[in-house]
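Because discrete structure vocabularies remain unfamiliar, we turn briefly to a single example record, giving the amino acid sequence and backbone structure tokens:
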Amino acid sequence: MFKKLNDIDSAFRHIRLFCIVYTIALTLICGFTVYKCFEQVKVHEQRLYILANGKAIEAFASGRKDNIPVEARDHISSFHKLFFTLDPDEKTIQTNITKALYLSDNSAEKVYSNLKEQGYYSNIIAGNISQEISIDSISVNINQYPYYFRFFGKEKLIRTTSIVTRNLITEGYLRNIERSDNNPHGFLIERWSILQNNDLNTQNR
């Protein structure tokens, strides 16, 4: 009789041990599953889908710090293209300059006013001159704030009889501001100045 009781007690201990191990294993599996689910949700939250020309394009969200150099260079590039790409049309010039001035403070407006007073834009229109800009490089120092930058590029002045190529080097600082339709990168160019803008060569047409 005592042997039977010992067998029952032993069996009960084995069953209890099995139940404990099984419960712990289930808890670990459930915990791991919940963790992986949250991880997947986080990954999917960082994905964006942009609709372009009827096609859904997948994009990934990231912190702004990761994109500062890229966005800063694009902001600087956009400003210079708008400011220096000119055609012999007063309305086009005014439209481009207005867009450029949204990306900068009054330092760019002063440069524009000086050029206007010197008759630069009038000469562009009167001489049927087109001005194009090409970018060589843009360096941005994100280790200090506001972010210092230097722009290296070339201007081409296309006249009826010749093409004049000019060297262009500018510098300035970038300050963070709120993004808007007129300023999608959320940067403002400050203390902008032209360091070099000299003729390199003239090519007859």
In short: The mean pLDDT is 84. The chain has five helices and seven strands. The longest strand covers residues 162-176. Strands lie at 47-52, 55-60, 130-141, 147-158, 162-176, 187-196, 199-204.
